[in-house]
Amino acid sequence: MELRDEIRLNYDKVLSTVSEHAKKVGRYLEEIKIVAVTKTHPLYVIQEAYNAGLRIFGENYAQELRDKAKELHNLDIEWHYIGRIQTNKLKYIVPVVKLIHSVYREEEIVEIDKIAKKFGKVQEILIEVNVSGETTKGGIQPDDVERLVEFSKEFGNVKIVGLMTMAPLIEPDETRKYFKLLRELRDNLSVNFPYVKELSMGMSNDYWVAVEEGSTIIRIGTAIFGERGK
Predict the structure, then answer these.
(1) Architecture in CATH of 3-225
(2) DSSP H helical segments within 59-140, as ranges?
């Protein structure tokens, strides 16, 4: 099977699964963005995925994102940055992305604002929240999120549009409580900050649970592209 056909088949399966689980809770497929995670995948894979109908791509490494965006500048791709942030590499990220998923420190907001100002843009960001409490994961503690949202109001070139989390690598249905916690946190925040709407949660191993719990953005790599190295 040609790579494009394989990606299209896998993508269709993801769309079908999202649609099925969205309907279970009175939602619609159109409410959910699918970010194709392409870290370490070569350019031709992204090109084939684009030809198969995908338009939103997520990268984990700043320089890899910069280089891929430059090479594929002629395609109407919406780039997202989903990896750990190093503030000295934000200069590679801000010029090309629609959304940064993984912000959780004040200094990141300061630096993003400074760079976005140079490019005349308002950079949309998500606050990464560590709802599971795992020490190996990045993210702010749930109790500190409102303070960071409040802090961000001082910066005219940054806009927090939602929250992001990574659930532990456990059985899919056991992730439900973590997705529910993030949704409840978003709902509470939206009373005072109505622009905090998005929920980036759910990956290849648990995205259908995240959809049932209100995710608006899912980050899918393996379920679309297969295991790396194959």
Answers:
(1) Alpha-Beta Barrel (3.20)
(2) 62-71, 90-93, 106-118
